[in-house]
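Can't paste images in this forum, so I'm doing it all in text. The chain is below; anyone willing to post the predicted structure tokens underneath?
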Amino acid sequence: MTDHFPRPTTDLAHAKRDIDAWGYCMLKDALDPGQLAALRARLSEQLEAERQRGLTRRFPDGKQLVVFLLNKGQVFRDMIFHPGLHAVVEHVLGEEYLLSSYHAHFAHSGSRTAFHTDQFWMPPPTNEAKETLMKPGSVTRAGNRGHHVGGDATMQPKTIAPAVVCNAMWMLTDFTAENGATLLVPGSHLSGRQPDHDLDGDAPWIPAIGTAGTVAIFEGRTWHSTGENRTGEPRIGLTTNFCAPQFRQQENYLLGTRPEVLAAASPELLKLIGFKPWQGYGGYENGAEWNKRGVYALGELVPDEGVGHE
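Text version of the structure:
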């Protein structure tokens, strides 16, 4: 029975209980019909323009991305400050966090599953002997994403890593079991390990079913995957991925954000994409409160001749 698993709700307290218990929640009617129409129209234009220029990002597994949406329309920038979304993200990550990536995500006919978590790169905690099971710099996408590295005996359920990522999938079309709705395993965020295609195909995968305008929010340890699209139409969503401020973002907003977007950006947006240093990290050495393009840390100096100290 899945009746007790998360369903779309407008009750934020209920959504927070869901994500604590099951690793994900769903907010109903997060986007209204006008927002949905505007988002789909802008995305369609962008998709066609990128196709014309040979910039399409479509993959053999049936998935397609339009990346760095922060640059690609005001309508995308407006929606990332949805108050319900941020109430849940703050509940998971705390008061400070960053936007890590912002993509459109298409599941085309024939799309295949790819089990993973969004913090596959997080090394497992030490074992009872305080031994480091994996060096942080040895984690690789090919070797760790979608693979359970190490035996179950190395996992300590009382010492699993915390959630340091929180992701949201905005449904621009209806998400159904037939068209590739995001699959999740309720409670997997507390398993202490990564999913594996060879081991976990028969895990209790649940499709996040919702009407267009719903947003599914899941924390970084939750097992998930794109579902298999068995229809002739693409399933379309937008993903807004957030990370704790200690971690590197997936998209480099300090370098990649266009000047016109920065010129119009609010302090809230600038902070969210990393232009405000955090606890002495992510900033320049000159002690400025905000990072700015074209402002650099102090360089190599030599003393002026004939100038003494007062």
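The two ends are 79 Å apart (CA to CA). The longest strand covers residues 98-107.
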